[in-house]
Amino acid sequence: MTGGGKLSHLDAAGHAVMVDVSDKPATARQALARGRVSMRAETLELILSGGMPKGDVLAVSRIAGIMAAKKTADLIPLCHPLPLSSVRVGLTAAEDGTGIDIEACVGTTGPTGVEMEALTAVSVAALTLYDMCKAIDRGMTIEAVYLERKAGGRSGLYERAGAGGRPPGT
């Protein structure tokens, strides 16, 4: 329950609760998150050439990100389980040759947004990439996981300053 019509993760006694979104209308919602895994140039070359001992790092990381988006409510306390209508995860070599850029675009039609699903997809894709490459390069870093764009719902459009706001693959 929420007090005074305001959505809150606290009940009247100050205890944590999942927000009641039953009165919110279901609308189309989409979120785009980004992140990066920085690594040595040699590691990036092995990934791109398909020479990593554990196999196709990019394909496995992409699938891990998609699966994670679908399980976000199981990972993040008080996060609503949502029926996702689309999840796209893209992993590409950074233009400066220092790592892999990751982006996730998640969509739903529902009463609450998908920002957490997009951020979770990027985070788990990055962790999977790290796990598959750590024997070659333990110095990799997972960096700058952030929400770039969110559309739909009561709060409308959010675009991070300076962001292009393009969904992956467009």
Automatic annotation (TrEMBL):
<dbReference type="InterPro" id="IPR036522">
    <property type="entry name" value="MoaC_sf"/>
</dbReference>
<dbReference type="Pfam" id="PF01967">
    <property type="entry name" value="MoaC"/>
</dbReference>
<feature type="active site">
    <location>
        <position position="131"/>
    </location>
</feature>
<keyword id="KW-0456">Lyase</keyword>
<protein>
    <recommendedName>
        <fullName>Cyclic pyranopterin monophosphate synthase</fullName>
        <ecNumber>4.6.1.17</ecNumber>
    </recommendedName>
</protein>
<dbReference type="InterPro" id="IPR047594">
    <property type="entry name" value="MoaC_bact/euk"/>
</dbReference>
<dbReference type="InterPro" id="IPR023045">
    <property type="entry name" value="MoaC"/>
</dbReference>
<feature type="binding site">
    <location>
        <begin position="78"/>
        <end position="80"/>
    </location>
    <ligand>
        <name>substrate</name>
    </ligand>
</feature>
<dbReference type="GO" id="GO:0006777">
    <property type="term" value="P:Mo-molybdopterin cofactor biosynthetic process"/>
</dbReference>
<comment type="function">
    <text>Catalyzes the conversion of (8S)-3',8-cyclo-7,8-dihydroguanosine 5'-triphosphate to cyclic pyranopterin monophosphate (cPMP).</text>
</comment>
<dbReference type="InterPro" id="IPR002820">
    <property type="entry name" value="Mopterin_CF_biosynth-C_dom"/>
</dbReference>
<comment type="subunit">
    <text>Homohexamer; trimer of dimers.</text>
</comment>
<dbReference type="GO" id="GO:0061799">
    <property type="term" value="F:cyclic pyranopterin monophosphate synthase activity"/>
</dbReference>
<dbReference type="InterPro" id="IPR050105">
    <property type="entry name" value="MoCo_biosynth_MoaA/MoaC"/>
</dbReference>
<keyword id="KW-0501">Molybdenum cofactor biosynthesis</keyword>
<comment type="pathway">
    <text>Cofactor biosynthesis; molybdopterin biosynthesis.</text>
</comment>
<feature type="binding site">
    <location>
        <begin position="116"/>
        <end position="117"/>
    </location>
    <ligand>
        <name>substrate</name>
    </ligand>
</feature>
<feature type="domain" description="Molybdopterin cofactor biosynthesis C (MoaC)">
    <location>
        <begin position="18"/>
        <end position="153"/>
    </location>
</feature>
<comment type="similarity">
    <text>Belongs to the MoaC family.</text>
</comment>
